[in-house]
What we know:
Largest sheet: 7 strands, mixed
Structural class: mainly beta
Strand content: 15-25%
Shape: elongated
Amino acid sequence: xxxxxxxxxxxxxxxxxxxxxxxxxxxxxxxxxxxxxxxxxxxxxxxxxxxxxxxxxxxxxxxxxxxxxxxxxxxxxxxxxxxxxxxxxxxxxxxxxxxxxxxxxxxxxxxxxxxxxxxxxxxxxxxxxxxxxxxxxxxxxxxxxxxxxxxxxxxxxxxxxxxxxxxxxxxxxxxxxxxxxxxxxxxxxxxxxxxxxxxxxxxxxxxxxxxxxxxxxxxxxxxxxxxxxxxxxxxxxxxxxxxxxxxxxxxxxxxxxxxxxxxxxxxxxxxxxxxxxxx
Length: 279
């Protein structure tokens, strides 16, 4: 799951079915990434897969950075986790992970805005935090649009600390959903969104949003209800102090012969660029 000199391998179970129906009101969800395992929902169906319920990977990807603990520590927020690893307490981006908001800007004096963390990245860059100087930088985009390599969404940076109350931690990114069937019908939802960062105290920086994860769907015949397949970024958080930046969109790809009764657009050409939703 990690890049560079910290590459790790995870053995993933692929659930296999002759046919699969997820009824309305039912949910199949990934486990959350714990630093070593989790965060991948992989399903292969030899016949027909009907998704009227929900496939969920939202907020189960790379983890958001911690905020300052309060207690007049006035510390910086932690960077969001990304393929580069967990990071540390810095306003710089951690590869795709958002930077933490800077600490000690006012340190229990004055009423200015302690900086918010920077948004996590994946299909695009994350948004920087706002507030006093030392805002967390947004993460840098990574991965490939064709999803030949599948990544989790990066976490948002934690907010910067100002005084007694803890600042907001960043939101986790989205995880990965991989679903292949001969015939695939989606009238429910397939979602891998990033979480919004959390709010800190009145003068503490807010945590930033995590990035959307990865969704890969494949079938000879695919039918999707509009707007039901998504990998949105976690929204920015406008707390009483510095704003945590928004996380970026993730990546969605569809491989098929026909999509909603028409030819698939150039081997999924409409979804090979970073996309927040399909339909």
